[in-house]
Amino acid sequence: MIVDTLTIARELKAADLPAGQAEAIAAAIGRSVSETAATKVDLDLLRHELKADIEKVRNQLLLWFVSTQIALGGLMIALIKL
Prior knowledge:
The protein is mostly helical. It has 2 domains: 1-37, no CATH class; 40-82. It is 85% helix and 0% strand. Helix 1 (5-14) packs antiparallel against helix 2.
């Protein structure tokens, strides 16, 4: 994300803030936003990680479901033989 620090500094100067303070505040805002904002690469990486996590959970649920069905089938057979 690009922050227009020059415009921020001009607006702060227009609000009667001394030039040095206005420029320092604008620079701090620019650094803060550029260091903390997610980039497209960050979002793509997160998307791939989430897809992998979802696939892992899906596989675990499928295994649980199949195991439960097998156990229920065995239980039904045992009950029928009683």
